[in-house]
Amino acid sequence: MKTLLSTLTVFLLTAGVTLAQTDRNTARIAVADAKQAPTLSFQDDSRGLECDTLRYPLNGQIIYYYLSSPESGYITGNNSYKDKAKAEYFTTYEPGASISGIIAEFVIAKNVSNLPVTFAIWAGDGSNGKPGTMIASATKAMSSIVSDVANEQPTVVLFDQPVNIPGPFYAGVLLPTTIGDTLALWCREHASTYTGTAWEQWDNNNWYPFNDEVSWGAGMQTSMTIHPITCKTVGLEEYADAAVAVHPIPSTGIVNITTWAGKDKISLVIHTMSGQQVYSRSLPGNITNFNLDLGTLPKGVYMLRLSDGTRSHNQKLILN
Known about the structure:
By secondary structure, this protein is an all-beta fold.
C-alpha cells in the first residue's frame, strides 16, 4: 500500500512518463502543506436567484498529495498515470434548485498552451452508478485559472443554462493534455473514519473512485475542492401589487401588462416553474401599459415577476 511522507516540498510534474495503472496503489505519496479555507460566497443577482455551494467548506485538514519518484504529478490532478479527469460524487441537492456552475479551488496551475479547460457535470448513469452522460459543461482559460491560483482565489465557472438532475451526479474537471499544462486541486486529508467521494477517469476512459483497491486504495479516503453551484429562484410564490393587471390568462402569446407608475425602471423577468429564467427586459417607470410578445416561448406555466427594488409583483402566466 501507499507510504505517506510528510514534507512541504512541491514535487514538479515530469512530462512524458507513463506508468502501469496497477502500480498506483503501491505508489509513494507525499502530503504537502495545508491551506486555510477562504471566505466564499456566490450570488447571481442577474438571474434573481438565491445560490449556494455544495460541500463548502470541506471538513478536516485541507491539503494536497503529490507522487514521489519514480512516479510524478498529483493525486488530484495531472500525473504520470495520465489521468483524464477528476470529479466529485454528490448524492443530491436542495429540491427546486438547479446546478448553475462549479467552483473549484486549485493549488497548482501551470500554463503553456493557454487552451481552455472544461468543467462538467455527469449524470450517475454509467455502469454501477459511475459517471456517464455529460449533461452540462463550460470552459475557462488556463491563464485565468493560473491567475486565480496566484491570487489565492477559487475558479468560478457558470453554465449557459442551469441543469436539473433527478439523482446522484458528478462534478469535475477535464485535465489539460498539453505537456507542461498542469492542474491539481486541494483535497481533504485522508482519514480512515471518512468515506471518500473523489473519482478519476483513467487514460483508458474508465472511471474509478480514489478509494478503490485498483486505484489509490482504502488509504485514500478524501474529497476534492470541487463545489457545484446550486441556485433557486427567489419568490416563486404569487403575490400581487394592486396596480398591476396582466391579461389575458391563459394567453396564446401576446400579453397586456399594466404596472404602477414610478421614477425607476421596472425589471420584468419570466421563469419556468423549475426556476430557469427564459425572458427578461427593463421597462421605463413612466410607461404603465404595454404589450409583451411571448410567442417564442413553449406552451406551459411560468412565473412573471415585476420589481423596481421597492415594489414587486409575482404572478403565474399560462401560455397555450
